[in-house]
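>> Question from a student workshop board

For tomorrow's exercise we were told to take the sequence and the ligand below, predict the bound structure, and bring the output to class. My setup keeps failing. Could a helper post the expected result so I can at least see what it should look like? The ligand is adenosine-5'-triphosphate.
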Amino acid sequence: MMWWRSEPFDFGGAAGQAHLKVRGLSAGYGPFLVLRGVSFEVKPGLTVILGPNGAGKTTLLRAINGLIPRQGEVLLDGEELPEKTHEIVRDGLALVAEGRQLFPQMSVLENLELGGWLVPKAERQARIEQVLNDFPKLRERQQQLAGTMSGGEQQMVAVARAMVSRPRLLMLDEPSLGLAPRMVDELLGIARRIADAGTTVLMVEQNVKKALAVADRGYVLERGALVASGPAKLLARSTVIREAYLGAASSDTTSSAEAARRTREVA
Ligand code: ATP
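>> Workshop helper replied:
Here is what the output should look like for this input. Compare the format with yours to find the bug.
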């Protein structure tokens, strides 16, 4: 059995066509600025952010999600996102962080229930039922303690839990990290299906080839600045990707002027 049902996903008419616009986003840790005036757009569909280790990809998702302070504009469907994480969740944004952050001593079902903590119980049950329809293997495993599942299985639970909140925008931070190749394919397939079902997906991935094979668009982040963007199919063939993939720019002294010069639309 696959992790997902063969029919298209149906997250209960989750969302529609959410559009994220980020303008001049700066964020970091204390005095250490990681992102310096990043601007980009996430259109409906599946967008992937690529880049070498330490480029600031996780920081970017954390800043959008309100987990760290930020400067600049973050607009979801034209409206400024609040800066408090619980308000952001209510506003329709969900983040599946690296490391999944499940509660290991709780069952799969209890973890899913936490994904619906902001909605009334009856509604929450209906949403969980919907998610269990879309992820039939999780229905089989609903009483299993999350901590006893494999890494890939836990990642499925984390994605399913995020979908219980019926986000308009789902952000995934390296969902395939540490997983076996078959599980990577399943995870990326799920991201694609979620996007096809109407939830806009923004995904950070190290698995460059596979991520670009399922994504609609991609961005390359280096040293806290975006240096390339374009349709996934074209990015996959670009030299910029090879540089980012090999981490070439992380060992030199790319200045922001240099980064700006190199910023280009691969089209
Ligand atoms: P990776 O692919 O390795 O996860 P990344 O592109 O996601 O990398 P970030 O995790 O965003 O990169 O890190 C960007 C920079 O911010 C790095 O130099 C990192 O050391 C630093 N950093 C990350 N988290 C913190 C923190 N909590 N406190 C201080 N510095 C941090």
